[in-house]
Amino acid sequence: MPDGGHSVCGNCFHFECDEPLDRQNPEAWRCSLRGVSIDADPYWTTCDNCAEETSEPSGPMRAVVGGMGKKGVPIYRRLPYLNGRRPEIVEPGGSGSGGSGSEVIRVETGEGTAEHFGSVDEYLGFQEKHEQQWASS
After folding, report:
1. How far apart are CA 54 and CA 40, in angstroms?
2. Partner of 73 at 20 to 30 A CA spacing, among 65, 98, 116, 137?
């Protein structure tokens, strides 16, 4: 998969940016539906309204994140943001070298603080309990 798939912000008509898309200038990436900046690559970010003609957002923004599954097969997940903060999949210790092969989901929870989760289910449970009205962000 060269990017997060076809249903991503970069392919959505709610996505605004300077033409042509300048990957060096993410400050110019914006979602006109939600009125927010797209804080990461628009081809690795999505939401439930991707390419829908609607004036009301539904559901949270989602990060398209990847990691390695069993036998080295890549796995892609669409994880909801936590109060406007993008989750990422990282390896323990941030080594990126493969080590144990287990991945951890990391999301900032406040200025300079972060939570780490050992599974998608663990993150989704935390996100559901701690998410504040996503439509207002």
Report:
1. 23
2. 116
Return d(Cα 113, Cα 128) in angstroms, integer.
Answer: 19
Q: What is the DSSP string of 45-110?
A: EEETTTT---SS--S-EEEEEEEE-GGG-EEEEEEEPBTTB--EEE-GGG--S-TT---EEEEEEE
CB atoms within 10 A of CB 5: 15
Determine the pLDDT at residue 71. Answer: 79
10-residue averages of pLDDT along the chain (137 residues):
70 86 80 90 90 87 82 84 89 45 79 88 90 52
Please name which of 88, 87, 41 lies closest in space to residue 60, comparing C-alpha atoms: 87
Q: Give, as one character, the DSSP assignment of residue 85.
A: B
For 71-82, write each residue's pLDDT tens digit.
778 778 899 999
